[in-house]
Amino acid sequence: MVAASAVITVALGLGYAVADAYDIAPGPLSVEPVQTIRFPQAASAVAATPLVGGVGADKGVDEARATALVDKFAKAKGVGKDFSIIIADAKGDPVVERNQGVAREPASTMKTLTAFAATASLDMSSTLDTETYLDGDTLVLKGNGDMLLGSGANDERHVNGRAGVATLAQRTAQALKAKGVTTVSVAYDDSLFGSKRFPDTIAENNEGDDMLYAAPMSSMAIDEGRNWSGTTKPADPDVESAFPPRFADSAAKTAESFVAQLKRQGIAVNGGIAKGEAPAGKPIASVSSARLSEVMGFMLRNSDNTEAELFGRLTALKTGQDNSPEGAAAAVKAALEKAGIDTDGLHIADCSGLSAGSRLTATTLMQVQAKYLETGDSTAPASEGLAVSGLSGTAAKRNIARSAAGLVRLKTGTLGGVTSMTGNVSRTGGGTLVFAVIVNNPDNMWEAILAVDDLVGHLPEL
After folding, report:
1. In terms of pTM, does the model score above 0.85?
2. Is the pLDDT of residue 377 over 90?
């Protein structure tokens, strides 16, 4: 009975297969040749066109309207008499200017000079690596300038925290165990920036020992050395919205965090953490910061003083200037002069504009913006990193006309007696212009800020 049933089952199966092959029953089998689908030749093709137009360097700026805007600004309540302003076309040829050659305190618009010098001198696709070396039975932690380390694992979504101390500890422990090493002494190498870590006059605007707005230079730091104890840490590490005190020795604090993480990975540590020097050769483990181009955008959008000074110091090291705040200032000035930018009256107290005593002219600020447009890709990280009106960074909440949203790439500047702004503008009628405005000692700071915003909000109309 079973045998008969099996024969019937096989017969039915063979019968269905034959029916499938001749397309009588549904299924994957077929004896018909495969037909190649042919598509007709396209009748026409749409030619590719650029998504973004050129800067429109030859398109003139309405001088009469620009003059009217400047005259209105000069008479605005709160501005006072201590101001400089310049509006120029995309080539940097002035259209309207007032007191443009008077050197004034620039506040954070100084960062645009540093950004230009850094992009002209450094490989902006490179990273700052934090490394570990094994020197006998001593593990040496070495920093190369990443002051935006995270305490946890690498965070690919953010600039601040892209490289994580926990990830470095994990990779280091894995490398040590592969060598049969389970116990080490630990030292850290913080020699990158020499002995002078702060500009001379920064304390006046940096809340003294609390250092709320800038950290001393360090070869490595977790979140720029911020001490969040007792302060709510912002949810987005790439948006600086709170200013806690900072640790004076960021590298030592980073080493402490690293050792704690290393112990969690099963590596025993003998004694305390010493200062040391990394040996020659290759590291056994490392983590990499965001690319310098990304750090540049972080610096400009947040107006981050620490990263601005860092770019100055890196530029000094790259170009052979002294390893000091003064060397950083000299490196920035040399890069500007090499590019043909007017540096008359320029004095750089630091590379961020936070320190008291910096001076520059509106002409210098304007020519930096014009040079961005001229040089294009070579300085793109600096020009593209600027905050955008109504959309990003320090420009997002300024009182600039809604009609100008997305059309002005700018850098703001604010100190106790300073409001300033510089940038480049996409005009609604086509073409581009550049501008700079500096107000020192205004009659009323808030009214002066509003006057600057009102002026800039109308620039796309020119």
Report:
1. yes
2. no
